[in-house]
Amino acid sequence: MTPPGIPPPPPAPPDEAVASQPRRRSRWGLAPGEQAAEAPAQRPDSGWDAGPAPQRRTPGTAPDGPERTAAASRGVGGAPIDASDDRSASPDRPRPRRDERRFYHDPRAQGPAGITAASRSGFADGTPDGTRTRWQTRHDEKKAARRARGDLTLAERARGEAVFGRNPVLAMLAANRREEISGVWIQEGSDASRDRALLKAVEARGITPEYASKHDLNMLVGGDGRRPHNGVVADASPLTPTPIDSLPLPAEWATDRADDDRSDDDDDDDRSTTTVTPTVTPPVWLALDEIVDPQNLGAVLRSAHFLGVAGVVVCAKNSAPLSPVVSKASSGALERMDVRSVGVMSRFLRRCVEEGWDVFGADNAPDAEDVTTVSVAKPSVVVVGNEGAGLRTNVRRACNRAVRIEGGGGGGPA
Question: Kind of pairing, strands 311-315 and 339-342?
């Protein structure tokens, strides 16, 4: 029932009128309700619906045949495209080779300095073989001109290694263990330039100090500014450890051990009671098993020097070299301590035990002794392992005793 005020809808057309109207096709190529098998091969030649019935295809696929050719011939806005300019228009035309492409990187055109032929085009006045660019060539020319005038930088004048820092330089001058000290540079206007002790130690070695800017000293010790030289740098020969195979007992302890051996062979009790124990403090050496960090090595040397360690033994391989960084981290203790090197640490420790040394391995093991309960009664060697792995297995087996340090809370070994 139609509400009042609204005209009734028009009557539905008869079936004949619906059948005479052109049937609109869906995007699948079929009219609503039409089956593919019932589609006529040829539609009536009238209006927009003329032409052969399109074939049904899967949604999302590209058209085939004439439809593809017509779509490819139309550009943006329906404008035709010249097929002669389109390389993909002809399926028989081969694709361009890789070496024909415009920005292709050819490794064969790359010089020893890592500069391609394309990048060398802007540096035509460099070396012919392409090893040096224009700017590098100019730098080489300026450097050669400076050397011809005798105007060299501190880094070019240095003959050895640059020992930096006030304490390392003072300790080096006092210990006199390096073969040669070529020169000493002091920063202009710094505290080191007014340090009387430093200036006196330099003059005592017959060296005339030279003054340079902070920038020149920074470039001499590394150039990144992260190595504090404290206003003084010395040019000295490298410091190398003394290679050894064993560590003999000191003379007084070797005599006492011989007396003990004779008293064990003698049945007379009076002779055994006449053995005299040395009154000197037994020496303690420190053996470092593959300490690779120079900062750690310097810190250990500084602590060992403060605690009165007689000497330090390092591994000849897999150990940080005795560099200026180690000397700076040790605050000059490297210049004063007796540092030696061994080829095989486990063999060296076994020989120490045979000679009569007590060899303590720092190990966090349950059977290790608390370091506070251990007394040093004869010459001893304390072995400290690597920063990450600790003592190696063979090194641990070569020790005749093991010690550990309790943690700060007292809850267990650290």
Answer: parallel
DSSP-derived secondary structure for 352-371: HHHHT-EEEEE---TTPEEG
3-state helix, strand, coil in the chain (%, to 5): 35, 15, 50
Asked if 220 and 155 count as a contact pair (C-beta separation under 8 A), the reply is yes
Alpha helices in 106-250 (DSSP H): 117-120, 134-149, 154-157, 166-175, 196-204, 214-221
- Of 255 and 170, the structure prediction assigns the larger pLDDT to 170
pLDDT above 90: residue 296: yes
CA distance 286 to 282: 13
Q: Which of 284, 346, 290 minimizes the C-alpha distance to 315?
A: 290
Helix spans in 100-175 (H) = 117-120, 134-149, 154-157, 166-175
H or E element: which one contains 259? helix 251-265
pLDDT score of 165: 92
| pLDDT per position as a tens digit, 126-174 | 566 667 788 888 888 888 887 787 777 788 788 889 999 999 999 999 9
Q: What angle do CA 94, 96, 101 make, to 5 degrees?
A: 175
Average pLDDT for 183-212: 91
Beta-bridge partner residues of 284: 380
Neighbouring residues of 17: CB distance < 8 A, sequence distance ≥ 6: none
160: β partners: none
Q: What is the pLDDT of residues 60-104, one digit of tens each?
A: 555 555 555 444 445 545 555 554 444 444 555 555 555 444 444
